[in-house]
Amino acid sequence: AHAADPAIPLTVTTLYNQVSVAWAGLSKTPLQRSSQWGIERLFLVLKEGCRVEALQLGTVARLERAFALFLVVGWRIARLMRLGRTVPDLEASLLFEPEEWQAAYILAKKPVPKSPPRLNDVLRLIARQGGFLGRKGDGEPGVKTIWLGLQRIRDVAAGIKYARESHDL
After folding, report:
1. I need a labelling partner for 43 at 20 to 30 A (CA). Which of 18, 70, 100, 166 fits?
2. pLDDT value at position 92?
3. According to the model, what pLDDT value does residue 143 have?
């Protein structure tokens, strides 16, 4: 029988409070390093993309609500990155609204396909909006270029949706 892995403590300090979280079950074993890497990517998105450390919400309850929302955002970005690498041929419409993948093509000044494109094609277009260069040796987009690109895509997608709803496009 294996001894239980010790929990890895994590402390998030805000202006008003300090919240401690223990990641139970994570260790330095090879199998669990990839899980830990995933959590580190998620916290990178939370810290730099969502800027949770800059929140000054005043109460723990408000911080918890904001953190819950930002966890969903961080999870989506990390999931997009992971799926773009593991199942690049997946249809983009499974993970993006039509306006989102169409906005990626519009911002890239490319013809918008009639049918949903591949996930990896859309992710690369989105990541280019976030600074991804897409050169031969660059590999696949990371969470940072995806979240930066999604910020631009979101605005254009909202405009497309509004135009369709308001003007029967």
Report:
1. 100
2. 93
3. 84
